[in-house]
Design goal:
CATH architecture of the largest domain: Orthogonal Bundle
Oligomer: single chain
Shape: elongated
Strand content: 15-25%
Low-confidence stretches: none
Distance between the termini: 48 Å
Number of strands: 4
CATH superfamily of the largest domain: N-terminal domain of the delta subunit of the F1F0-ATP synthase
Number of domains: 2
Number of helices: 8
Order of helices and strands: HHHHHHEHEEEH
Radius of gyration: 22 Å
Strand order of the largest sheet: 2-1-3-4
Helix content: 55-70%
Length: 186
C-alpha cells in the first residue's frame, strides 16, 4: 500500500513537469520502452536495487547508459528515483503515470475480467456499451480468470460492475442458507 502511494506521488510529480499533453504522451512512451527494456535486463535491475553497491557506481552506470538517449526531464526524474532508492517502483510509477495522464485526457482505465478470452469484436462491443453507459472514453485492459465461471467483472477507476456467475451463485447459496435457517425455526 505504501509503495502504491509513493508511486502515485512520483507519477503526479512527473505529470507536473509540463502541461503539454503531447510531451506527456512522449514521456509515457519513453517510460514504457525503458521499463520493458529494464524488465529484460535482470542484472541491471539487480545492480540498481542492490544496497551493497556504492551509489557513485550506480550513478555512473546510469548516466553512461541513459543520459544521451532520454529526454533530459525523464533522465532527471529517473535519476531522482535512483538516488532515493525507488527505482524498483518504476513499473508502479509508470502504471500510476498512465492513469494520471488518462485522467488528464478524459480517458479512464477499465479492467475487464472474463472466464474465457474474448474475440476482438466482442471486446470492442463491450467497450462501446460501457462507454455509452458511463459517458467515459475508456482505455480497456482485458484479463482472463477461469475462476469467475462466466459473466464479466468490470473495474473503472474505483468503481466495480460485478456481473460474474460465481457472484450470482454465491448470492443464491447465501439466500438458500438463510431460508434454510428460517425454515428450521418455524
Amino acid at each position: 500500500m505504501a509503495e502504491e502511494i509513493i508511486s502515485k506521488r512520483y507519477a503526479k510529480s512527473l505529470i507536473s513537469v509540463t502541461s503539454n499533453i503531447e510531451e506527456l504522451e512522449k514521456f509515457r512512451d519513453e517510460l514504457i520502452v525503458l521499463n520493458e527494456a529494464i524488465m529484460q535486463l535482470p542484472k541491471f535491475r539487480s545492480l540498481v536495487n542492490n544496497p551493497g553497491i556504492a551509489e557513485s557506481i550506480k550513478h555512473d552506470i546510469f548516466k553512461r547508459t541513459f543520459k544521451s538517449i532520454l529526454d533530459p526531464r525523464i533522465y532527471n526524474f529517473l535519476f531522482i528515483i535512483l538516488k532515493r532508492r525507488r527505482f524498483k517502483l518504476l513499473p508502479m510509477i509508470l502504471k500510476e503515470f498512465k492513469i494520471e495522464l488518462d485522467t488528464l485526457m478524459g480517458r479512464h482505465l477499465a479492467e475487464f475480467t472474463t472466464a474465457i478470452a474474448l474475440r476482438q469484436t466482442h471486446k470492442e462491443e463491450i467497450v462501446k456499451k460501457i462507454e455509452a453507459m458511463t459517458g467515459y472514453k475508456l482505455d480497456p485492459e482485458f484479463y482472463v480468470d477461469p475462476e469467475i465461471l462466466g459473466g464479466i467483472f468490470i473495474k473503472i477507476d474505483d468503481t466495480a460492475i460485478d456481473a460474474r456467475v460465481s457472484r450470482s451463485i454465491s448470492e443464491i447459496r447465501r439466500s438458500l442458507m438463510e431460508n434454510k435457517k428460517l425454515l428450521e425455526h418455524i
